Amino acid sequence: MSTQKLSQVLEKALSRNSTSLKNQNKAAEITQTLINSGLKPFKTNPSLLSNLNSNIINLIISNPNLPLHSCTIFFNFLKTNFSLASQKPNLKTHLTFILRLYKDGKFKEIKEVLKFIIFDDNLRYPVEEMFSLVGFECNDSNFLQKFCDFFFRVCVDNKMFEEASGAFDYMERMGFKIDEGSCILYLIALRKCGKGDSLLGFFRRMIESGVEISVYSMTIVIDGLCNRGEVEKGRELMNEMVSKGVMANVITYNTILNAYVKTKDFEVVSEVLRLMEEEKVEYNAATYTVLIEYFECVGKHEEAEKMFDEMRERRVEADVHLYTSMISWQCRRRNIKRAFALFDQLNEKGLVPNAHVYGALIDGLCKTGQMEAAQMLVNDMQSQGIVVNQVVVNTLLHGYCKKGMMDDALRLLAVMEKKGFEPDVFTYNIMASGMSRLKRHGEAKRWLFMMVEKQVIPNVVNFTTLIHIHCKEGNIVEAKRLFQQMQRRGERPNTITYNALIDGYTKKGEMKDAYKLRNEMEAKGRIPDIYTYTSLVHGECNYGKVDEAMKLFNEMCQKGLVPNVVTYTAIISGLCKDGRSDEAFRLYNEMISMGHMPDQRVYSSLVGSLYTTGVNSSGCN
DNA sequence: GTAGGGTTAG
């Protein structure tokens, strides 16, 4: 190094020292003022802060003699005072303030400052650079680790997954201990944002980075896999983790059990139950809820009751979830008395009913047409301080619509809208189908058009309703157009959608197109049900092709589908019109033996057939 | 900071 250069360096160092000294003096002066008199002097005389620079600010903020409270007030003053725009705290100042908060254990406040940094265009830096700056400014490795973790969590809280991922990478590269709790928040946020496909990938990264894995994060990932229909993958993951020493608990098992219950596959359900027994995992209320749900779903009511009894024998306390499920099933079976008995039981146990429980009960009353009682229950829940939410309003509306009480539905809707209720996809569909049921097709369509105007995106159900309306109006062209439009919009028609359209075609006598759709739905994995067959049977009968109708009728029975009163009516009247009263009476008897009550149409058909064919000899009883 | 519950269309 030349002498000249050395002298320059020395000069610079000296001048730095002198500025540094000047800064220190200024900082000390301001700090003292803040301690003695707070912000007031600076507000009345802003020139006191005229020579402020970031070094001075940092010296003030990091001064442990200045109480944190004063420190915060000063920091916020600098941030918000427009006349001090040139001294607005920069990233380094913010980091200094965070360090100060950290030393005082103010973690919640740190997160707020971090959030501010993340959303401020002038303060936001690439993750890497910011962390390096923290490491450079502060030699405390513990703080840097904690800082990274805070930053990661704040990104997660604000759904900034890429930034969070960057923070994770940095922590991994630096060999920091990564907190599982933070990773769990990341997993939950992913799931909440519909990014379930990223769960497993991130979980693998956690394992590779040496994050201590607990049953919590494992279960979240398994749940995510189950929700995507990848139950087997979930089970494999569980086995893999068990071999690594992470034991599954009752919640993990419930998660897998619940996924299998939805497939209604008794074999796999029993297998999980056996596994739970082997592993000595005791059932809890959630296990019983899932099992009761399963048995009710497959129509084994007695088994479901047995589960409820077993739970009490094993002294597992029922909770609100379980009662809601039980009540809902009683209501579906129209056993309102039992539903209310369970409701009383819940209250006697000191459990607090919530909107879900009330929702189930109100639905039960609506299903049985007891609208006054339903309204009373709504008042009751309100008096308990429970908010009448979207579901309850929709349930009530549906109750009124089903009874054709459209004026009451409209009145309720108007009242609720005044209270801030906003109709959703359900509401519009309930109103439209209510109108359509009364053949008020114009109004029905208006409700569905209104939802589009209100920017509510129609789903497959809404499209199906509209298609159905057009079919009822005989406008099969428009129905078909909508059917294609919905698919272009990414809504996949389900069995019910196909049924609506098939019914439209059969009513027009366009049987060829109806069969074409039936084949198409099968090819797409949508299974024809009794409604599909009933429409086809009806269509064939209407056009005198009773042999074709009988073929369909036998085909559906072979497939294990049980004809209902409508199917029987269609085929019986078809046979009668064709003069085949023997066959008609045979099916009539079959229908009676199946426990179906014939309606007026069946009688008229049969009586009519007696007139045309003379005396029947089949011995109808 | 892990699981289970109430609403819609033929």
Question: What does this entry look like structurally?
Answer:
Helix content is 73%, strand content 0%. With 621 residues, it is an all-alpha fold.
CATH superfamily of one domain: Tetratricopeptide repeat domain
Our Rg estimate from Cα atoms comes to: 35 Å
Task: Give the overall shape, derived from the CA principal axes.
Answer: elongated
Average pLDDT for all residues: 91
Structural class by secondary-structure content: mainly alpha
Task: Output the CATH class name of one domain.
Answer: Mainly Alpha
Strand content: under 5%
Task: Just name the CATH architecture of one domain.
Answer: Alpha Horseshoe
How many beta-strand elements? 0
Q: Could you give the distance between the termini? A: 121 Å
The third-level CATH topology of one domain is Serine Threonine Protein Phosphatase 5, Tetratricopeptide repeat
Please outline the major beta sheet.
Answer: none
Keywords: Repeat
Pfam family, one: PPR_1
Protein name: Pentatricopeptide repeat-containing protein At2g32630
Family: Belongs to the PPR family. P subfamily.
Q: Which descriptors would you attach to this protein?
A:
single chain, 621 residues, mainly alpha, 34 helices, DNA-binding
Brief digest:
This protein has helices at residues 3-37, 40-44, 54-61, 68-80, 91-103, 107-119, 127-137, 141-157, 161-173, 180-192, 199-208, 215-227, 231-243, 250-263, 266-278, 285-297, 301-313, 320-332, 336-348, 355-367, 371-383, 390-402, 406-418, 425-437, 441-453, 460-472, 476-488, 495-507, 511-523, 530-542, 546-558, 565-577, 581-593, 600-613. By secondary structure, it is an all-alpha fold.
